[in-house]
Amino acid sequence: MAKKKNTITLMKGEREFHYAALVIMTLMMLFCIVPLILMVTVSFSSEQSLVYGYRFIPDEWSLDAYAFMWAKRATIFRAYGLTILVTVIGTAISLVMTSMFAYPLSRKDFKPRNVIAFILFFTMLFNGGMTASYMVWTRLFHIKDKIWAYLLPGSLMNGMNVMLVRNYFNANIPYSIIEAARLDGAKDWTIYSKIMVPLSKPIMTTIGLFSALGYWNNWTAGIYYVNNPKLYTIQVYLKKLMDSIQFLKTTDLQSEATLLASRNLPTESARMAIAIIALIPVLIVYPFIQKELIKGMVVGGVKG
Q1: Integer distance in angstroms from the first to the last C-alpha of the chain?
Q2: Where are the alpha helices (DSSP H) in the chain?
Q3: 12: exposed, middle or buried (C-beta count within 10 Å: 0-12, 13-18, 19+)?
Q4: What b/e string do you get for 104-135 counting C-beta neighbours within 10 Å, with b at 16 or more?
Q5: Rounded to whole angstroms, how far apart are CA atoms 40 and 34?
Q6: Residue 250: its pLDDT value, please?
Q7: Could you give the CA distance from residue 303 to residue 81 in angstroms, rounded to a whole number?
Q8: What CA–CA distance (Å, rounded) separates 84 from 235?
Q9: How many whole angstroms separate alpha carbon 114 and alpha carbon 117?
Q10: What are the pLDDT digits (tens) for 27-72?
Q11: pTM (2 decimals)?
């Protein structure tokens, strides 16, 4: 009787926990979805209706922001193409470099691994700063106004990603497999390419998404290192575009015709339309890799 009562109490406690978790997750979901809904509705609002703030139901619907963006579609498509190229190439190189760096750190027979891991961790805490980085990349590597400006500075390999991959190797790939492969005559490159990488799909997907998002959203590199408009990625171009609109809205040195034209430029709604344009690829890709992403994050974050 007492055992049955304890079982009922336990089931009731689990049910209450599930309800509480459901409420918390629902609130977190709303915190994510509500700003996105607001962003969409603002992008379809007229500029005049946004004078007194954003609303979920606009006083006046308008396509001015998207018409403004469509008028510049040729430049936007070129920027989109360059962004896709940079993201694909950068992500591929980042995956190779990160996994190759993590592989020896996961090997127990690699004696300097603790020293190298400490140096890697040190770089995650301290760096030379933006001024030093700018001088090195522009004067030593000469990446100014080149596509390498988007690929090289601080993006090809991240210390945290290396740690995640190393932990995944340690936690999910038994060392006995590596020893067996070595007894069969396999070299390190064969072990890495034929065993480690194929068995690491979840963490590789996770790191790939992190790298892709980093390259896709990278506008600071373009601001610092790129002055050629033909080399603007979508993020850099949209940032420059918004700066130009804001300049026309605020400057006092305008002719009457320019002043009248600038008053009709969509500013707030264009910002939201720009954000939606930049967000669309992420929304398309994420559902297809969600399962592997979650698995890679959970297992890769376990200390190895």
Answers
A1: 45
A2: 2-43, 64-71, 73-106, 113-125, 129-135, 148-151, 159-172, 175-183, 188-191, 201-216, 220-225, 234-250, 256-263, 268-300
A3: exposed
A4: ebbbeeeeeeeeebeebeeeeeeeeeeeeeee
A5: 10
A6: 65
A7: 39
A8: 11
A9: 5
A10: 988 888 888 888 888 888 887 777 777 888 888 888 888 888 888 8
A11: 0.77
Phi-psi region of 302 (alpha: psi -120 to 50; beta: other; left: phi over 0): beta
Instruction: Using the predicted structure, report yes or no on whether residue 163 has a pLDDT greater than 60.
Output: yes
- Determine phi and psi for 299, rounding to 5 degrees: -80, -35
Task: For each of the domains in the chain, give its residue range(s) and CATH number, in order of start.
Answer: 73-300 (1.10.3720.10)
The per-residue pLDDT of the chain, averaged, comes to 80
Tokens of 44: 């379809």
Amino acid at the residue 125? L
pLDDT above 50 (res 259): no
